[in-house]
Records
---
Amino acid sequence: MTPRQKALAKNGGKKLVQVMIVLFGITFLTFGLLRLSPKNPAEIWLLGSSGHVGSVSEEALAAQEHAMGLDQPFLVQYIRWVQGAIHGDLGLSYATKTSVSAELMRHVGPTAAMAFFSLLVSVALAVPLGICCAIRPLGVLDRVMQVGSFFALSLPSFVVGLGVLWLFCIRLSWFPILAEDGLRGLLLPCSVLCVQAVFKMNRQVRSILLQELEKPYVDGARIRGVGEREIFFRHVLKNAAAPILTCISLYLGVFLGGSTVIEGIFSVNGLGSLAVSAARTMDYPMIQGFVLWCALVYLAVNLAADGLAALIDPRLKYRLS
């Protein structure tokens, strides 16, 4: 192997170790926090979803805990879950008695469609607006975006979602209250997700570009008589592409992780609604599977963004070698 290949292999090994440590920490912490909850999944299962159906004897509760494996020591439960997760088996849902992996795959479609559509719209709006604001800082457009950011970021997403639901579904009756299948059903939830994402991403793109404009090579190009347009579009944008890409990747992770509140408001049968239902019934396997999904999504997106950034920016390639 060449020295460069050895360096890349070493870097890949470090990344893999870091991913394993993060996954271990997240899943172990989630496993422990769930067991600290005062609610007993076995009792919830016996009493029903409402929790007010009769009473449960100690014998019945002990038998149900044994059936769920909750009578085992904490570390034994965690090690068994990890062994299953390594082979793709996340266990059976307490609520539905079906495979957690199958349930996650069944609900991932609406969430993935909503995430990618929201990201596409957000990037198409935020990046050009951020470029325009960086070209003319404190101009009319920049001030309008600052004011819009103040209001958009001050309002919680559930307030915006309820407002959109009331206006377009109840007041104007343009959309049904329950989300439809297909693109039409994604319009309202994606619009709510894009409101804050566009303003946040716009400010971040603007900040990245302004920082790049303050670097010495820009002053050097100006001294040599290079035009402002050429400096910005040929050099500044190229050098800022990697951090902008990293910024965008974070939003994809957020959207794919499941926008729980938005999915609940618009009745989207995605991962967010699945997680809320699992939390309500203390469905340990489903909650752990959802957390593992979110962790894997964030890590995969970040690793992909790092790889693309290394392809875009030669300086990152040099650091890897």
Note: The two ends are 13 Å apart (CA to CA).
---
Amino acid sequence: MSDPAQIPTDTLTTVGMLENTPAEVYARLRRTTPIVRLQALGGWIVFTGAEDVNRVKTDGAHFWSSDTTSPMQRAFGGHTLMRKDGCPHLRERAAMEPALTAQAVAQWRPAFEALTDRLLDGLAGHSKVDLLPAFATPLSAGYLKIVLGLDDARAARLFDWAQALVRGAMNGSFDEDIFAVSDSANTEMNACFDRMIPQHKAAPDGSVLSTMVNATDPLEISRIRTNMKICIGGAVIETRDALLSTLTGLLRNPDQLRHCIMTGEWAAAVEEGLRWVAPIQASPRIVKKALIMRGLHIPQGETVMAIQASANHDEDIRSAPDIFNIHRPPHPHHSFGEGAHSCLGGPAYRLLAASVALPKLFARFPTLTLADHTAVEFKGFAFRGPSSLPVSFQ
């Protein structure tokens, strides 16, 4: 048997290409070098095929998340469950999980409906609006406030906090100016959580914060805080972007939109939107133990990226993957992850989007159309979604 080859390095891809045209980049890499070092990402190894992405996320013997040296620890004010494995990770995950099951989040449906109705009332009477600031952003912040158990006083800060956390976590150069912003956000978030804890102990409501502080064997306050920040750092941006991507796909395909309106099959649209443009495009891991994949030597200790955005477009699984099509044969997408670190927020997002937001929006405004097809641009490497979504009310 021949010795394993070294991983090739891609020097063609630029950061701009990953931000602006990632689908084209990943399609090329899947064809030519599905496992490759990207010079644009500092030489990190990326995996682009569906089978390989799934392995990176589920093969705990060779890939893990444990890391106490990443900028995420400073950015989030502590060592988060995203950078833990095994029992420490499972204990923190289990502390939140009871609040995020499909059965648990069903209690929030009336609150989601009331929030959505208020926002739709605000859209009435307009001839044209941008759904990003007018609908998707306040809906995402309002829904997350409900699920997490926060009050209105700081709900308006959720996007600012999330952006500070994400930017800090990606601060590979350990720039103190960037950390200063995340440090300030951490101070605000800690004060917010600490103010809410006595209220949740006095009147538990099943929210994430309430569930954690009222547990029989609760986590330390530092871990409760970092768990809340993980939810904020991912969910508020991810929800907004996923909803806007699904809306874009439906509005660009009026026949599919009519099908959803007539049949009520909004769940298919939600899953296709998540597949079509993964709101979180990539997930980092560290090589725990060296291995051979596709005849290549994957060295121990390397930082790698599992590109779920690419896995969702793998031509070996789906034909014409760049096309939004709610009628595809059902097949799981990778946008909520696999394995021990799969996203806990899936049931809450699916309830909000498929059962409340989309049906209510189009029941209220059935003739809603894109104001300009060419005006919808998708941006972002880590988080990706439309930068605006101008629509007309006919």
Note: The first strand starts at residue 9 and ends at 10.
